[in-house]
Design goal:
Blueprint (H helix, E strand, L loop, with lengths): L15 E4 L7 H4 L4 E6 L2 H5 L2 H9 L5 E6 L8 H10 L5 E8 L1 H13 L7 H7 L11 E6 L11 E6 L4 E6 L7 E4 L9 H19 L6 H21 L6 H21 L3 H13 L3 H4 L4 H12 L3 H16 L2 H5 L5 H5 L20 H10 L9
Parallel strand pairs: 1-8, 2-3, 2-4, 4-5, 5-8
Antiparallel strand pairs: 6-7
Helix pairs in contact: 4-5, 7-8, 7-9, 8-9, 8-13, 12-13, 12-16
Length: 379
């Protein structure tokens, strides 16, 4: 597939990447600024000793001190982020390290932009009140993902959820990109099966969504296809072999590449459908944005008349999605009637309109739930 466009296009991604087993040990040579750093993470990494490990490496020569906030939970809330930001307002930080899944990395990105200005309540004023603001960041930022899904370590946006307004917001801009990221697949080995699946599906969604996208470019397409090739190979196998570091590495690469693709294109219709499912019913993001992928992929293939190697890749992805029984996973959180009831909330500007083909949300949902009879148990 090519873009088939004669319009001008560009690509920008300034994040420096260090990857491979053991790359976490490079954190001291990457977070180089002298002074006080803030580690943003979740309680599990403190319990497992990873926080202490980072502290030991960072503070080894006495030029840096590590503060820790390890209470980030899934889908960080606007008011919570503002509260955290205010708590560090007078802390003389030089940088932030985000260590965790997509929610932790998003929180770290938001805090890096808001802590120096916490008294301004930027999230409330900019997101809830809609005031124009150009996001800036003066703190250094290092992102260390521990899941293979969001690609947040290489994207210029961070998701903020707001249960008060029942909305999902995005803090976005070139200054939201991390400065550096560390990809150490050993950090993902302990990820349970469902989290491995749902985050892998998020990466799948990012790759596909950047392909059926009005903003696609030759670079974003190449990144997305590379991500899908890795996912088709590694995701079904890693669900059988959670401790396989080589497969974990493949999934980290896929997540990174898909993240780089959506950094340019943003996401599209599947993500637009997903947001109210997560807000209203707590459906994990990767599941919410992937259960419609197969139905949308078939539309994409039909519209393009895809042939050759790309068609074979799409067919592998379609077979994988069908075999995972995603409607059955979704039923743990919401019924088909619950999901259909949210159709009026599923058209998000800036996402749904990235999808280049005519679509009927009710029909997409109908076809997605019809696949509930196709189920292969990977346990």
């Amino acid at each position: 597939m090519t873009t088939g466009t004669t319009t001008m296009w560009g690509h920008f991604n300034p994040v420096k990447i260090t990857a491979g087993v053991g790359s976490l040990d490079r954190v001291a040579s990457i977070a180089t600024a002298r002074g006080r750093w803030l580690l943003v993470t979740s309680a599990g990494f403190t319990r497992r000793g990873v926080t202490a490990r980072v502290r030991s490496m960072l503070e080894a020569n006495g030029s840096r001190v590590l503060a820790v906030h390890d209470a980030i939970t899934a889908n960080p809330e606007l008011d919570d982020l503002e509260s955290i930001s205010a708590s560090f307002e007078h802390d003389p930080l030089v940088g932030i390290i985000g260590l965790g899944g997509g929610s932790v990395l998003d929180a770290a990105k938001v805090l890096a932009a808001t802590i120096p200005h916490s008294s301004d309540r930027l999230l409330h004023r900019t997101l809830r009140e809609g005031r124009i603001h150009r996001w800036q960041r003066t703190l250094s930022l290092v992102a260390i993902p521990t899941t293979s899904g969001t690609g947040s370590e290489v994207t210029p946006f961070a998701t903020v959820w707001d249960s008060v307004t029942q909305k999902k917001y995005s803090v976005a801009g070139e200054r939201i990109f991390p400065d550096e990221c560390i990809l150490d697949p050993a950090l993902t080995i302990s990820l349970p099966r469902d989290e491995t699946l749902y985050t892998g599906l998020d990466a799948t969604s990012h790759a596909l969504e950047s392909l059926w996208n009005r903003n696609r470019t030759p670079v974003s397409e190449a990144l997305a296809i590379g991500a899908l090739e890795r996912i088709a190979d590694a995701l079904p196998r890693v669900l059988h072999d959670l401790g396989n570091c080589e497969l974990r590495d493949r999934m980290q690469q896929a997540s990174l590449m898909a993240g780089m693709a959506i950094s340019h294109t943003r996401t599209a219709i599947a993500h637009s459908i997903s947001y109210p499912l997560t807000l209203r019913f707590g459906v994990p993001h990767g599941l919410a944005c992937s259960f419609t992928l197969d139905a949308i992929l078939r539309r994409h293939m039909q519209a393009l008349g895809t042939t050759g190697d790309l068609r074979r890749l799409f067919e592998l992805i379609s077979k994988m999605l069908g075999a995972l029984g995603l409607p059955a996973h979704l039923s743990r959180y919401a019924s088909e009637a619950d999901v259909r009831g949210l159709i009026p909330e599923m058209t998000t500007p800036g996402r749904a309109d990235n999808f280049p083909y005519p679509h009927d949300l009710a029909q997409i949902l109908r076809e997605s739930f019809d696949h509930s009879c196709i189920h292969v148990d990977y346990h």
